[in-house]
Amino acid sequence: MTTLTKFVARSTNRKLGPMPAAYVERETCPPVCPLRGAGCYGEAGPVSIHWKNTKTPWRAFLGLVKAIPAGILWRYAVVGDLPGEGNSIDTAKLWQLVHANGDSRGFTYTHKPLSELYRKTIKRINEKTPFTINLSADSLAEADRKADLNVGPVTVVIPSQTTLATTTPKGRTVMVCPATYNPQVNCQNCRLCANSKRNFLVGFPAHGIKRKQIDERLKNRQGENANSVGV
């Protein structure tokens, strides 16, 4: 798989803020992601335009990442996922990305199912490098299961009307993403998701034109997750 990308040196996305950002081809998205075709914000609006123009080859993209100054916050995969087709993670390319990141502050999220190898890789990256990989969950119960893996910070989709901090079934604190309710806050000045050592989860309220559909799906998943195991 070639892993095509689009790199933006200064994002105009309000929630991101004026930081470097990368968009990664949709083939990296795992089929297990429940947002595919049912609420993924990359499938409509301005973000979808970038997603349709992921034409920069991986090697050239790594060169752009290397040019990001030390300490600068940037977002990998505004849409898309870790390198690797579908549910797989190309660990060689992932380490190439981490090495290209150097001392800059890259951060991202993954919906990929995690084998033992993938867990070990992500845990090492989160513990030993400035690059942060958040595990994305789609219910509070799933967030608990992913947090139990102890490989990195966890984020979770929550109902659209959620405005206050909440907790998971196991009592973990979930802070609502400040950029979703405060127009003065963006990823550039918040940085919660770039902190691999945080001791709480970050919740993203369902949003966009399909938020009602996502809210209904979240209700259904809460019931499903009550009887499910694994990741």
Please characterize this protein's 3D structure.
By secondary structure, the protein is of the alpha/beta class. The protein is built from seven helices and nine strands, in the order E-E-H-H-E-H-E-H-E-H-E-E-E-H-E-H. It has helices at residues 45-51, 58-66, 91-101, 116-128, 140-148, 187-190, 211-225; strands at residues 5-8, 21-24, 73-75, 105-110, 132-137, 154-158, 166-167, 173-176, 201-205. The strands form two sheets. A seven-stranded mixed sheet has the order 3-4-5-6-9-8-7. A two-stranded antiparallel ribbon has the order 1-2. Residues 223-231 have low confidence and may be disordered.
Bin the strand percentage. 15-25%
Low-confidence parts, pLDDT < 50 over ≥5 residues?
223-231
Helix count equals 7
Q: Name the shape in a single word.
A: globular
- Please give the alpha-carbon distance between the first and last residues: 25 Å
Proportion of residues in helical segments: 25-40%
What is the mean pLDDT? 89
**Count of extended strands:** 9
Describe the main β-sheet briefly: 7 strands, mixed
| Helix-strand makeup class | alpha/beta
